[in-house]
Amino acid sequence: xxxxxxKLGEDLLTCDSLLxxxxxxxxxxxxxxxxxxxxxxxxxxxxxxxxxxxxxxMMFLLExxxxxxxxxxxxxxx
Length: 78
Prior knowledge:
Layout: H1 24-34, H2 40-64, H3 66-74
Helix pairs in contact: 1-2
């Protein structure tokens, strides 16, 4: 299987998500698997870690596709 490029027009569409979704199930499973003690602080910390990871992925996609994003946004303005 070929490696993904993560580029608009190649293996991404403009309707694809830039930021992955996060469900209660995702958070519950992460807390279950990663937290020795389950309390509000642990749940908040796990959610913060999950958000940081997703933000990092989102920023990667943003930077990798900046030129294509700007080109699409300029359409109809010139």
